[in-house]
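[scheduler] slot 2 assigned
[scheduler] job type: sequence-to-structure, two independent chains
[scheduler] chain ordering preserved from manifest
[runner] begin chain α
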Amino acid sequence: MPSSESPTAPSAITEIWPGSAYPLGATYDGSGTNFALFSEIAERVELCLFDDDGVETRVTLPEVDGHVWHAFLPGIEPGQRFG
């Protein structure tokens, strides 16, 4: 994909919203992406986002409900590489 069509660069993240614990995984809603991950034993969860050059940006998921860690990242679109 040419860089002009790339999703928002992870380094451009300026807002992290609480998001929703459901559904699990990454869910795009047209304005950004909700990330939700289940773990009974985690004390902290970091989402790793990668740009086209493989540069990593880490985002700590700020919310946890029922062992589901979650955050909504405005501007993150389908095609964003994450782990």
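[runner] end chain α
[runner] begin chain β
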Amino acid sequence: MGGMAGLEGMEQPRPRAGTAATGWETPDADGAAPPAPVGPVPVGLDLVGDPHLGEVRLPSRPQSARTARRLTAAILLKQWSLSPQLAEHSVLLVSELVGNAVRHTGARTFGLRILRRRGWIRVEVRDPSRGLPCLMPVQAMDVSGRGLFLVDKLSDRWGVDLLPRGKTTWFEVRVNDR
């Protein structure tokens, strides 16, 4: 969890192929597939979709942050059996990215995807705005504007990929695969 992250991918947006970003959800160099989901599909994923299998579209309103948090927790804890602390941090960070998409883009919907490859998880929030988020200095008494500061401090990497129609804001966190 290092210094000023967030510039990865901005100059040259990553091309997309299929439903997963390049290098994600594909076998590693040694041919090992990513860990399979554990157990039955958690309640809720069957209602809105599973952001691990493909992008889930959610309405751009404050209540959608709760749905995104629940989806993230369900996948990380129930499907992938990851640590509660990692899930807690990821839930907080997805809430911040969703909050930015809802507050600052004027879009009707946004997309959520959660990807995994050996040693990493990646959470993406896609919206139709090409306006870039800005990491601002945070003061002790600030009551807002802390979202990207938290993303920067709690994730291992984060960034923005510009798309032909919008952007994807993402963060990645290391995981200890067993």
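[runner] end chain β
[qc] chain β: Residues 84-104 form the longest helix (21 residues).
[scheduler] slot 2 released
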